[in-house]
Amino acid sequence: MIMESNNYDEADMVNEVELLQEALGSGAWNMTFDQNGELTSVNWSQVFRRMIGYKDESDFPNKLSSFIDRLHDDDRERVVNLYWNAVKDYTDRTVYDTEYKFLTNNRGYRWFHAAGRIARRENGSPISIVGFFIDIDDKKKLEESLKAADEEKTEQLRILKSLADMYYSMHLINLRTGNITEYSSGTELREFLDKKISAAEKMRLIMENVVVPQFRESALKFTDLTTLSERMRGLKTLSSEFVGIYTGWFLANFIAVETDNEGCPTVVLFSTQVIDERKQQEHVLFLRSVTDDMTGFLNRRAYEAQLEYYRRNPIPENLVFTVFDINQLKHVNDTLGHAAGDELICGFASIANKLKMLQGKNGKVFRTGGDEFVGIFCLTPEQYAIGEKEFFNHVSKWRGKLVKRIAIASGTACRSDYPDLNIDELAKIADQNMYTSKAEYYKRKGIERRHI
């Protein structure tokens, strides 16, 4: 009997196989069942919907009736009976693999080939069925090329069925007996699974050898089979993410297959799924969300998060809080245009990016407004003084194409000078000092700020 996992993370599955499905002209779907074999959920993939001319769940709901109602009258009874016979055959001998005519939303009735694989519990009751749906209308209509079409269809089905094994590893674990039944497994796990030790010892040994050190302790706690049943009391699933030595980020998932009278699992399905690409995409999206597009500095959202961090955690003794402001930016925008103003903003960024001394190991620069920037550095006052001198030396030498010079006002508050103040109070002092610097600049230039 072949068993597959009940797919509890359909969104991740679609992201990983959607392009291949479309290239092969196929669409995936899956359904889940309770312990009594009753249907509990239906999920039609977006590729499936697009193949038959529908947009999303609003016009093709996640219901079995969405499919049944659109079957051709000649095929409906046969296909429905085959589906339920396959689901209810606890011996797993009945295979759901058939062809039929189906009413699409944009091209009328077309021929399709469908196949499904059913995952079952030890007693034979269904856990889930994962299936694929292939458009074979052209092949049906081209009688002279039926043989070639059948060969192509067979190859596509072979590839598609292999996609049903979407997990890096999958094992059924009997927590009472300690038995592990393997359904799929990465090659790196083989040597540990073959050892003549208990399931709990195997799991511990695997996590110690395949998870990177910084995640090892949490992975060991998560996969501790001696405490799993109690930790999953009343829960259907338990999931967590870790980083593997061989896989990068992976999702580990326990699914309760059987439970005792107190709701504690006695049999669980344990699966791991590689999600490294998804995590990298999430990281890119996160960086975009906290980065200012024009300067490449962290944005206001990141600045507020940094303040919140220091509100909850100790402030380093060598923290230096600096507020920067570009003088006369509004005047430049009004008289020379916004392109000139943008040149000043980018000019400040280019200068600040040169200052490795100012940035230090933990230094960060934020763009908090149009012409306002904040630097939070971890440097001694002496180190900061050297960096500040270098910074204003670059400022004095800067020349633009649209604007001749740039003038920067800055204000600083060192934690060492104000050891009793919190981060918001340090920010306020730095801001006040910046405005003092700005006022002195306008006074030297004989400029009335209300006219700028």
TrEMBL record:
<dbReference type="InterPro" id="IPR000160">
    <property type="entry name" value="GGDEF_dom"/>
</dbReference>
<dbReference type="InterPro" id="IPR001610">
    <property type="entry name" value="PAC"/>
</dbReference>
<feature type="domain" description="PAC">
    <location>
        <begin position="96"/>
        <end position="148"/>
    </location>
</feature>
<feature type="domain" description="GGDEF">
    <location>
        <begin position="317"/>
        <end position="452"/>
    </location>
</feature>
<dbReference type="InterPro" id="IPR043128">
    <property type="entry name" value="Rev_trsase/Diguanyl_cyclase"/>
</dbReference>
<dbReference type="Pfam" id="PF00990">
    <property type="entry name" value="GGDEF"/>
</dbReference>
<dbReference type="InterPro" id="IPR052155">
    <property type="entry name" value="Biofilm_reg_signaling"/>
</dbReference>
<dbReference type="Pfam" id="PF08447">
    <property type="entry name" value="PAS_3"/>
</dbReference>
<dbReference type="InterPro" id="IPR000700">
    <property type="entry name" value="PAS-assoc_C"/>
</dbReference>
<dbReference type="InterPro" id="IPR035965">
    <property type="entry name" value="PAS-like_dom_sf"/>
</dbReference>
<protein>
    <submittedName>
        <fullName>PAS domain S-box-containing protein/diguanylate cyclase (GGDEF) domain-containing protein</fullName>
    </submittedName>
</protein>
<dbReference type="InterPro" id="IPR029787">
    <property type="entry name" value="Nucleotide_cyclase"/>
</dbReference>
<dbReference type="InterPro" id="IPR013655">
    <property type="entry name" value="PAS_fold_3"/>
</dbReference>
<dbReference type="InterPro" id="IPR000014">
    <property type="entry name" value="PAS"/>
</dbReference>
